[in-house]
Prior knowledge:
This protein is about 40% helix and about 15% strand. It has about 220 residues and is an alpha/beta fold.
Amino acid sequence: MSQEDRVNSPIGIFGGTFDPVHLGHMRPVLEVYETLGLGELRLIPAHVPPHRSTPQFTPELRLELLRRAAADVPGFVVDTRELERSGKSYMVDTLASLREEFPTRPLCLILGMDSFLSLPSWHRWEQLADYAHLVVMDRPGQAFTPEPKFGVWVQARRTATPEALHQEPAGRVYFQAVTQLSISATRIRALMAEGRSVRFLVPDPVWVALHERGLG
Ligand code: ATP
């Protein structure tokens, strides 16, 4: 892809608690980035996630681990706007601020299937599609079984044509098959609590950073 194509191609937005970041985040999202020909991929750690309890790791450590994970991956950048904002990290606010920065460029919000299925409980969730396309990655054990009303909403926006994500700035839903990795941050935290290794479940630089701190 030429430099000119890259700067006009969709921006991928991948938000999460990243408590901590693991290979189940990195590999699938790299596949989305490459397969869809995205111009860049922004990893956005949540400050205070609205849907769950307080993260176990501090925001500083979650950010450092994410930076280590993304450091040598071309096209990947860590975006700290949610950590810099006070209060809950609503994705709709994040997308609105990105849209201000990029008025016409396609934006693709990338979600694992579990997050996507929970969308109807998100703050002003229907507006997410006003700002961005939604790209859904399948995840082990998570079939697409939406509530009927949500299923209708998805069907009205669903496309099987990846070009649509380049041609329009927002509004489509696209399902992307990715390598299935049955890894979760919950499991990683449980292993650490038992004093067991998390090596090969997280990127090597992340494991080194955890290991240096006597974790992982
Ligand atoms: P936890 O176990 O603490 O709930 P998590 O492993 O689900 O965390 P998050 O940071 O909450 O990680 O997830 C960020 C995003 O990454 C979400 O959209 C989630 O669906 C997606 N994701 C996480 N793990 C995977 C995986 N193994 N495969 C595909 N998507 C994933």
